[in-house]
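Obj.: predict assembly geometry.
Materials: sequence records (below).
Method: joint structure prediction, all chains together.
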Amino acid sequence: MLERLRSPWSDRRAELSLGAVSLLIGFAVVAMVVFVTIQAWPTFSHNGLSWLGSGGKLEEQISAMQETSVHPPASAYHLRAWPLIWGTILTAGVAVVLGLAIAVLSSIFIVELAPTRLRRIAIPVIRLLASVPSVVYGLIGILVLVPFVGNHVISPAEKTSVQDTVLLTGKSLGVAIVILTVMITPIMIALICEALASVPNAWREGAIALGVNPVRAILAVTVRAARPAIVAAAVLATARALGEAIMISMVDGGRDFAPRLSDGITFLFEPLRTLASAIVDYHDGIGAPALKSTLYAFALLMLLSAFALSVGGYLIKLPMRKYQVRG
Amino acid sequence: MSPEEMLLDPLRLAAEAEPERIQPQRRIHAAEQPGQGPVVPPVRTIVLDRAPLPAPPPSERASVRTQLAGAGPERLRLEEVSIDYGPKQAVKSVSLSIHQGEVLALIGPSGCGKTTLLRTLNRLTELTPSASRAGRIMLDGEDIHELPDTTLRGRVAMVFQQPNPFPMSIFDNVAFALREQSRKRPRRRELEPQVIEALRRAGLYEEVRDNLDGPALRLSGGQQQRLCIARAIAPRPEVLLMDEPCSALDPISTKTIEKLIGELRRDLAVVVVTHNLAQAHRIADKVAFMYLGDLIEYGSTAQVFDEPRATRTRDYVGGAFG
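Observations (raw structure tokens):
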């Protein structure tokens, strides 16, 4: 058997075996999407698209589901998921925007401006940070940041201003965003650094030789050439931020509450819950079919947004690639 | 063919310079026919599709160089310029002057400091942290180290060995320096005449006129290099530096660019670094021969090639070392 594997493979045989492996992966993904869709279907068929909207108290709707029997009535599926969707958009969106700005600027610094010795240390350290398990960030968040924010940052006045609706403990949107940003920035820096470093030096030098000052040359030529990689990094980071469950569920306060922009700065200290952390928080209640289907619907929503993200990234990159060399 | 083109035809030049190298192989090829004389081991045969042209009459041998009126005003003057990379001295006390309307060729073996010297003329060597410089370089009577480097590089443009168009459209490439050097972003319509003019002067406009928004990186190597020349001359510099501009190109593109250099020097001072002695002979008005960082010889092309003063120069242009 080993002897057969060691002997040179014919093209046909290699093609078939490699093709089979890739087909297997493709099949697994398709099967998963189909399965999740089927499981989530009752939720959507009972709620329609208003499922995505707001209305009522989400916590009450979910506990109502847990109380229904194995054969739930149609009314048991009633849910308005907007607080979770809003929480997800807020945490992931703000973290990605912040992280992207930090990542682009620090990558430019590391690749173009930093002394060589610093660059040699910085790049491996950032790679290391990119691979830290997210639960470690969550632990630091709940043990360090949450008490600090709860005791020193939120003023008593802010606590009383919203005490009718929600309790401010420190577990909050702000902490979730900060930790999520810290978590996704290193991977973006690592990817963008690599892209910037692979921009041919001849372009940089050519721009400088045309009488452009070096910083302008970096922005106008190097960063411009690396734009597709910057988009790719942002897409990857957004996918990571959308799907982050454990860490967020540790620091987000676990309230099905949509932080209100109308509360001003206090908005940042309000608790929330995201789609991913809702799955973590409620997964032990899936004995109730209505809740089970609802959790699958959360999953389907995240799957679809991940697909939309990839397609969106591809479409954004298309015009940027127009002038790049293609093989 | 015009006499000028005939003179520049590389195949014909080779045949002219070394007829015996091609002819005997034709004979060997003939001897391989069965039953004709001794059997000769198979060798590489060159089959010419036509016989080499006869040598042109002497009147046509005039080079492109002599067809232009003499040198214009002095643009750049180098006074005792030395450049060190750490402990290594790359250029040793070189003094030269460069005039408008002239092509100066810097020749010499690899590592002799000619590229370093060229890159010093628009202060690109400063980008290398270990480089240091002594002596003065004057551009129209002003020390270039007293000019802001961006101003200087606008006046002393550079074309590199490898064509390096940016990953943008052809139009944006040529407009790049114009846009970056102007204070407020000019509109495309305002830039168009200058861009077209630059492409025309670089002899590229006719080839790309319908495709100004096409990607520059899809052009052929020779077109890319002419695009780089257009990009460099668009802001109307006074001096054009070229670092072996043809060494990455095929013979036909080389010929086009050599012809272009001959035309560009009408209103520019051109400095060309080249490894190719025949090219220096074809395009240059003045030649500077450098060896191990020293300027060994500087003079008119005819003088350096035909009556070199230094033994080193005679050996180098005679092909004794390279």
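Conclusions so far: Chain A touches chain B at residues 200, 202-203, 205-213, 216, 220-221, 224-225, 322-325 (CB under 8 Å).
To do: check interface contacts against the pulldown list.
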